[in-house]
Request: fold
Amino acid sequence: MRLDVLLFELRLFKSRTQAADAVRAGHVLLNGEPSKPSHEARAGDRVTLVRRGEEGRARSHAFEILELPRGSLSREAARALIREVAER
Reply:
């Protein structure tokens, strides 16, 4: 599944366009590396969202993909497909 579609289907972004823009801007890392929106994401991959806080400090949120979504999901169902992981 494309990375931008995955981020949208997991309800991490409001639109696929926002997800693709974040990936292009380097705010999303796939397995610790910058990627393209079209890169294939698989179960077991690690996704890190990097966001800037008000003070300008980067904050990151990492999770592992447990299973790829199939069809439209509620926010709760989408959250069941990922697991938060501690930053190394």
The CA atoms of residues 31 and 53 lie 23 Å apart. The chain has a mean pLDDT of 92. The beta strands are 28-30, 33-34, 46-52, 58-65, 82-84.
